[in-house]
Amino acid sequence: MTPQPTVWPALRYDDAPTAVRFLVDVLGFEETLVVPGGAERAIAHAELRWPEGGGVMLGSCDGPADNVHDAMKPGTGAVYVVSDHVDVIHARVRTAGGDITLDLHDTDYGSHTFSLRDPEGNSWTIGTYRGA
Question: Which residue windows are coiled coil (predicted)?
């Protein structure tokens, strides 16, 4: 059983529904909760689980004001995702025409990894390195 996430990176998007589709359909996250926002196509809160453990939270830039997340700008986040399926994810991103910013390579610290930007510019790195 995959453990429940205890750390949640949080991101904001101008077009959160499109971001959810990219993260689910291309990167491979699983959509677990999407709470609509007040405006058309707005998402107040969404939770996406990573099948190998962990997850991210996201919402629309015009989401509920809380003086923390409503001040976040799209395209300023960076998330590292551990996976044993880096080559499969890389192929999906390439097939989808994703913006690969650092091509697939092996690092001197033992990771098989690549980086990309999502449709609104947030940086994602997918790699096998699980930390020290």
Answer: none
Cα–Cα dist 28/33, whole Å: 15
Q: Could you say which DSSP state residue 1 is in?
A: -
Q: Which of 15, 12, 9, 122 is nearest to 66 (CA)?
A: 12
Within a 13 Å sphere around the CA of 20, how many CA atoms are in the beta-carbon half?
Answer: 23
Ramachandran category for residue 123: left, alpha or beta (phi over 0 → left; psi -120 to 50 → alpha): beta
User: What are the DSSP calls for 23-88, one per residue?
Assistant: IIIII--EEEEEEE-SSTT-EEEEEEE-TTS-EEEEEETTS---SSGGG--TT--EEEEE-S-HHH
**Degrees (nearest 5) of the Cα angle 5, 98, 91?**
80
Residue 43 tokens, joined: 């998402």
pLDDT, tens digit (0-9, with 9 covering 90-100), for 26-75: 999 999 999 998 888 899 999 999 999 999 999 998 766 776 777 788 88
